[in-house]
């Protein structure tokens, strides 16, 4: 809940203003009024994590407000339905409707404020004190209503609602609010007890329990028990909520870390890591029949040689923003970014019968999109010609966890990976944009892939690093012009 001049501050400024770092001394009574409402932690939290915690606390304040309003409504209904006590005088003063009405109005005001922003510490303390004051005042009024001595109020069952108001503060997961409410309740009952003693006459104080129960006598031990029980319940709840608060901070911190991690990993890979039943270990591997896609920007070295690093990064992020969604839309997973290169897998993370088909469908979408990207480069001040080369190969791979105990990485290993890298470089030899191994092209056709771009077969092509000549398929958005020494067969 937020109120005051800081309500117009920016979120980061608001957090820094309202939640400076405090220490464990803030749980002590002497500093409660000063530190209540501040974000107390044992360790500094990053700004984004602190903001998440603040949001959780604001939601808790709203929940407390709604619960308080429900309590007020429940008390009002019960009071309206309850018959008038048979022993009540006809002229009995009835403060209950007034107290409930005032409490309901105050609670509605707090709810309104809670939806406007953060409530400062002093207002939270005032709210707790008003809660207890209204309840203690209502209990105190019973002896006036029935025309009895003040000791009469010490025996009304409404005393139990003190514990309800203390427990209510546990909803915020801040032990300091519980402690404040408990101390206020204990202090209020102590004052009520002291007032009853002060106004009692000779013989009004007894040591006989039966006489205490059956009359308006005061039993000091009974009242000390009540105060002690308030303090004990407060202490237990304070410790429980303090431990829960530490768990909350840990959970929020880890939740933020998980969200950040997911931004560095493909969606499917992040889900695999976070949903693993056992802790991942280096050396874990699974065999897959997958397809590998590699992309590389030709001319990027020349472009980056005379450009500021910020311009280079800007171009790459714009390029990635175009192609990554296309890969993911066709069930692909980004394995890694390699400078201006991208490696993606299809069917490696989870087995798929359509890995090759998905890879070539993604390749077609990327070829079409990169043509638009190249056309937009001059308007962005890029005069160096940039071409995107691609390659796809499918086959058995090993999807493995590599690294050490403290640093792990998922990757794919296998002949299909090596062949894809070699085919991508072979584009430069042939002057092509995208090459696919012949076997992979046939697998894709069998898997439901229907070519829409120009596709031309290259038979018996000698690829550097490959022992035997390969049958390849060149793909392009425009008609291909291959060197004459390569036999071309239309497979489109």
What does this structure look like?
This protein is an alpha+beta fold and 492 residues long. It has two domains: 5-261, no CATH class; 282-490, Alpha-Beta Plaits (2-Layer Sandwich), CATH 3.30.70.1230. Helix content is 52%, strand content 15%. The protein has 16 helices and nine strands. The protein has helices spanning 11-18, 29-35, 47-81, 96-114, 121-140, 142-145, 161-168, 175-199, 209-213, 220-264, 267-274, 300-305, 309-329, 355-376, 415-430, 438-446; strands at 285-298, 332-338, 341-346, 387-403, 408-413, 434-437, 454-461, 470-476, 487-490. Helix 3 (47-81) runs antiparallel to helix 4 (96-114) and helix 5 runs parallel beside helix 8 (175-199). The longest helix has 45 residues, at 220-264. The radius of gyration is 37 Å and the shape is rod-shaped.
Key descriptive features of the protein:
15% strand; 52% helix; 2 domains; Alpha-Beta Plaits; 9-stranded mixed β-sheet; alpha+beta; 492 residues
In a few lines, what is going on in this structure?
The chain is an alpha+beta fold and 492 residues long. The chain has helices at residues 11-18, 29-35, 47-81, 96-114, 121-140, 142-145, 161-168, 175-199, 209-213, 220-264, 267-274, 300-305, 309-329, 355-376, 415-430, 438-446; strands at 285-298, 332-338, 341-346, 387-403, 408-413, 434-437, 454-461, 470-476, 487-490.
Oligomer: single chain
Share of residues in strands: 5-15%
Instruction: Measure the end-to-end span.
Output: 65 Å
Helix-and-strand structural type: alpha+beta
Helical coverage, percent range: 40-55%
């Amino acid at each position: 809940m937020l109120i005051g001049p800081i309500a117009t501050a920016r979120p980061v400024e608001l957090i820094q203003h309202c939640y400076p770092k405090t220490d464990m001394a803030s749980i002590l009574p002497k500093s409660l009024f000063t530190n209540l409402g501040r974000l107390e932690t044992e360790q500094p939290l990053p700004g984004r994590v602190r903001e998440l915690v603040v949001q959780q606390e604001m939601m808790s304040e709203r929940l407390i407000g709604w619960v308080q309003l429900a309590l007020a409504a429940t008390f009002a209904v019960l009071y309206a339905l309850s018959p008038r006590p048979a022993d009540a005088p006809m002229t009995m003063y009835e403060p209950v409707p007034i107290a409930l009405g005032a409490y309901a109005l105050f609670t509605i005001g707090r709810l309104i404020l809670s939806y406007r922003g953060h409530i400062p510490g002093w207002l939270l303390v005032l709210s707790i004190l008003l809660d207890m004051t209204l309840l203690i005042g209502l209990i105190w009024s019973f002896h006036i209503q029935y025309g009895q001595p003040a000791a009469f109020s010490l025996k009304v069952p409404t005393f139990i609602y003190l514990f309800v108001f203390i427990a209510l503060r546990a909803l915020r997961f801040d032990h300091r609010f519980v402690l404040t409410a408990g101390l206020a309740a204990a202090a209020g009952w102590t004052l009520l007890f002291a007032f009853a003693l002060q106004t009692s006459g000779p013989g009004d104080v007894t040591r006989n329990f039966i006489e205490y129960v059956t009359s308006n006598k005061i039993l000091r031990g009974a009242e000390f028990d009540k105060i002690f029980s308030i303090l004990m319940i407060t202490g237990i709840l304070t410790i429980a909520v303090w431990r829960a608060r530490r768990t909350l901070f840990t959970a929020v911190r880890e939740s933020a870390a998980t969200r950040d991690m997911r931004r560095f990993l493909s969606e499917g890979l992040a889900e695999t890591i976070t949903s693993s039943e056992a802790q991942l270990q280096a050396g874990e591997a699974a065999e897959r029949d997958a397809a590998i896609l590699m992309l590389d920007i030709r001319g990027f070295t020349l472009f980056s040689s005379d450009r500021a690093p910020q311009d280079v990064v800007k171009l790459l992020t714009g390029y990635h923003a175009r192609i990554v969604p296309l890969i993911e839309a066709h069930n692909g997973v980004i394995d890694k970014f390699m400078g201006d290169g991208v490696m993606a897998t299809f069917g490696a993370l989870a087995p798929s019968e359509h890995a090759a088909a998905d890879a070539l469908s993604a390749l077609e979408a990327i070829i079409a999109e990169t043509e638009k990207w190249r056309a937009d480069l001059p308007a962005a001040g890029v005069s160096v010609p940039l071409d995107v080369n691609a390659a796809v190969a499918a086959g058995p791979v090993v999807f493995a966890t590599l690294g050490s105990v403290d640093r792990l990485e998922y990757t794919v290993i296998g002949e299909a990976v090596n062949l894809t890298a070699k085919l991508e470089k072979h584009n430069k030899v042939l002057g092509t944009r995208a090459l696919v191994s012949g076997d992979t092209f046939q697998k894709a056709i069998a898997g439901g892939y229907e070519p829409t771009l120009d596709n031309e077969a290259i038979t018996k092509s000698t690829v550097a690093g490959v022992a035997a000549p390969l049958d390849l398929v060149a793909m392009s958005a425009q008609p291909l012009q291959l060197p004459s020494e390569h036999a071309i067969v239309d497979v489109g």
